[in-house]
Specification:
Elements: H1 2-14, E1 20-24, E2 35-39, E3 52-62, E4 71-77, H2 78-86, E5 90-97, E6 106-112, H3 114-123, E7 129-136, H4 141-158
Parallel strand pairs: 3-5
Antiparallel strand pairs: 1-2, 2-3, 4-7, 5-6, 6-7
Helix pairs in contact: 2-3
Amino acid sequence: DSENMGIAEITRQISKTDRLKPNFNSYDKVPSWDGEVYIYDKPNCNDKSNLKVVRVQVKSHRKILKKVTNEIKYKVDRKDIENYKNNGGAVFFVVYYNTSQDIKSEIYYILISPIKANSLLADHFYEEEIKLRLNKFPNDAEKITYLFLNFYNDCQRQTSFVFEPAVSIFN
């Protein structure tokens, strides 16, 4: 199944780190999320006392990219972005994969913090799908760890004032 192939690729990448632990539900019916990534304070730690959680959404497509780029555009449902705004943000992944072992999968992501979600919703007020720019996901374990840790910290700071009116560059 397509979703599980993408989740397997994301899990493989995140499992390279020593502070992150992916937790995905296969065949889930939860709207807007496919699982979460746990962030531990120390390497190789399973201490649940100071556990941090980032929600994750994965979209997978069996497709060979003719040209691998550092950025793609992808349409995301407005209701999902509203959920990210109201529930502390999410990391949104798009995975392009091929069942052939000799062709590498390509993973792209965007960090949708509560403030970013609020801004996207304001800038695309009448659109049911919002086209987003996703960047190529890093391959380096340290970069992946800091990406999640910094995103978590940003989302925590933003949660208190996300419901203030959005500032739009188009207003």
